[in-house]
Amino acid sequence: TQAPVNVTVTGAAGQIGYALLFRIASGQLLGQDVPVKLRLLEIPQAVKAAEGTAMELDDGAFPLLAGIDIFDDPKQAFEGTNIALLVGARPRSKGMERGDLLEANGGIFKPQGEAINAGAADDIKVLVVGNPANTNALIARSHAPDVPADRFTAMTRLDHNRALAQLSKKLGVPVTEIKKLAIWGNHSATQYPSVQHAEVAGKGVEVDQAWLENDFIPTVAKRGAAIIEARGLSSAASAASAAIDHVYTWVNGTAEGDWTSAGVVSDGSYGVAEGLISSFPVTAKNGKYEIVQGLEIDDFSRARIDASVAELVEERDTVQKLGLI
Ligand code: NAX
């Protein structure tokens, strides 16, 4: 049998962590034939709660779960790790400016990037979930110069899945029949969920522009706020599910004739400044995410992509000024 894959999860005692860890332990992250060892990272105050979650993981008697270790030191947590899910982040508190938020998160993602650089396994794959996810990924990546840039990704798969669900309801077709949806730009309210290239049964999708602009796009982009409004808590199980999807696809590939969405390091494609971590339509093959090339971008899409990418540029400039990258 295969040696266990080491999976580090930060923010393990949080609400996404609680949903995510059981899915990983059950084999849904990497496949039903791959044993996993969990390495949980928390801040010291939350280590006890993480131990509680670990007790419940034990109690699941998961056949594929080969061990659980808990750390409050990133250096140890990322030692030898193959997959890193960076979920723990500093949420925006009342009165906090955007710059303060980026700075607080710099304090988390800089040392984590350094620890990944110093100790992670050669095949390390990093998914940043903690917000602001794209820029947190940029910070971590810039402190891991020895790790290939394409190993750092940010999660927009939840946005992608939300878009699939909305379009599925609108068209009355199962989500499995919808191909080539894409999320572009930042994982924020400026994101652009695009149906420009979407297909059902090999044909382009016809929806009216008013529905796109007034319903679909804002519903997808503001779904996080709508969940908080309804549930009193932010999305957790759906976020965990998307993280599972993101890594599973990364490792196992996308289907022929389809793609998905992920925040990946831009190579300058589609006018997105090189080095930004932006969401694109991506395919996965042989353990690599690649930006889908050669798509025609209509004027409406162009303006939406540019607006979201401008926000990413602003975030990058802010963390640059703060000396975080
Ligand atoms: P919680 O507040 O429930 O949990 C976060 C956990 O992270 C806490 O247990 C905290 O102690 C821990 N933590 C804080 N700093 C840490 C550090 N330096 N090292 C290790 N652990 C640390 O938040 P939760 O609801 O689980 O959400 C986690 C993050 O995901 C948030 O930043 C949230 O904004 C983000 N999200 C991202 C989404 C995406 O699509 N990219 C969607 C869902 C979610 O909003």
Characterization of the model:
It is a single chain. The protein is 42% helix and 19% strand. The protein is α/β, with parallel strands linked by helices and 325 residues long. The strands form four sheets. It has a six-stranded parallel β-sheet, with helices on both faces. Strand 13 (277-285) and strand 14 (288-291) form a beta hairpin. Ligand NAX is lined by residues 10-11, 13-17, 41-43, 46, 87-89, 91, 108, 129-131, 133, 155, 158, 187, 224, 234-236, 239.
Based on the model shown, name its key terms.
alpha/beta; 19% strand; binds ligand NAX; 10 helices
Strand content: 15-25%
Overall residue-averaged pLDDT value: 97
Structural class: alpha/beta
For the biggest sheet, the summary is: 6 strands, parallel
Radius of gyration over alpha carbons?
Answer: 19 Å
What is the oligomeric state here?
single chain
Helix content: 40-55%
If strands are numbered along the chain, what order do they take across the biggest sheet? 3-2-1-4-5-6
Distance between the termini: 41 Å
Number of helices: 10
Model regions low in confidence, pLDDT < 50 over at least 5 residues: none
Shape: globular
Order of helices and strands: EHEHEHEHEHEHEEEEEHHHEEEH
Bound molecules: ligand NAX
The count of strands amounts to 14
